[in-house]
Each structure stands twice: as C-alpha cells, then as structure tokens.
C-alpha cells in the first residue's frame, strides 16, 4: 500500500499570506495525485488533479506541483473561505490512499 | 447537473449488515468510475472501494471480504453492501465520481454500536 504523508499537520496563516502544504508518497505515483479541501460538515471538494491541473471552478490562487513522491499545494493569498482541512490522494495504484490531512487555520 | 445522493445509513449492531445506495443523475454509472470514501468522526478520509466502467472492482484491505460494490445500470445507482460490521466502520460514507473525485454526495452516516 502506498502511504501518503502530509506536512505540516496544522498551518497557522494570516489572511492574505501564502500557504504551502506538502504531501509525500512512499512510492512513485508519477502525477497521479489529487488535492481536496474540506470544511466542517461538508463533503470534500476537488481542487487539483494530475498533480497540477485545477478542477472546474477552482480559483487561480490554488496551485499544485510535483511528481513522483513529492508534491506541494500552494495557496498564494489566503482568503477567509480557505481556512479548512486539506487532503492529498494518490490514484496511481490500488488501494487508492489519502494522506492524513492538514488543517489551515487563522493565525 | 451532476448529483450523487447516498442513502441507507443507520444504526447497526456489531456483526450486522447494511446496504448503502448512491443514486446518480447527470451521468451514467455504466460509463464512469464510482468510488466510496468514508470518514470516521473527527478523522480523515479513507478510500473504501471503486467500480470501473468495465465492471472491475477494488477494495481497501480493511473492508475486503466484508464489503461488496455493485451497480444497477437500469436505476443508475451504485450500491455498497457492508457486512460483518465493526465498531471501527462507524463513519460517514460518501460516494463520488471518478478516480480523482470531482463530484461528491453529501454522505450517509453508518453507526456501529451495541
């Protein structure tokens, strides 16, 4: 099973600042990686797939990068609605696996 | 408009069974990957199962042999039969479209407790 490790677990950021979240895979997943955002009481929302392609309707302040085993989600200028939990997921091999999640909260 | 609506959750005793259903509109289940993902209270996301357009199915190790995914093309639904339930299966169960899940339902809560 491919283990996905996210860091940091919690990131405290002021509105308007940049946030950078990391995701590491225990094996090469090429670019078969997605990022999701989840707010309390809501279903997850797809942000990024293919490691760097924004999903429909996702603002340009969200960007993804990386390949192989190291990936990054960057939020260029945090808005109030961006404070949430974020998850990475690999879809390169079975079973598909999620990272443990990262919380972005207000500093 | 794409919509997924889960149903069938509830309270069940350890060892019991449930049948979860995902009713889909805006796309056909026979031509798409449909995935089940769960989330235990206060915990992260856990991928559970997927059914391919061609009918192949895959499961997380934690549910293999106890859960079965299937689809009904005539009803445009994907079901998850969950058996031999354990306390640790307590979670919100979401269905979603795709391997990278662009569309999600709102989930159905399964509580396993005596």
Polypeptide structure, described:
Chain A has no helices and eleven strands. Chain A has about 110 residues and is mainly beta. In chain A, the strands form two sheets. In chain A, strands 2, 4, 5, 6, 9, 10 and 11 form a seven-stranded mixed sheet that branches. Chain A has a four-stranded antiparallel sheet with strand order 1-3-8-7, with no helix packed on it. Chain B contains no helices and eleven strands. In chain B, strands 2, 4, 5, 6, 9, 10 and 11 form a seven-stranded mixed sheet that branches. The interface between A and B is medium-sized, with 23 and 20 residues.
Q: What would you report as the Rg of chain A, rounded to the nearest angstrom?
A: 13 Å
Largest interface: A-B, 23 and 20 residues
Mean pLDDT of chain A: 96
Low-confidence stretches of chain B: none
Tell me what portion of residues of chain B adopts beta-strand conformation.
Answer: over 45%
Helix content of chain A: under 10%
| Overall pLDDT of chain B | 96
- What does the overall shape of chain B look like? globular
Strand percent estimate of chain A: over 45%
What gross morphology of chain A would you assign?
A: globular
Name some characteristics of this structure.
heterodimer, A: mainly beta, 7-stranded mixed beta sheet, 4-stranded antiparallel beta sheet, B: 114 residues, mainly beta
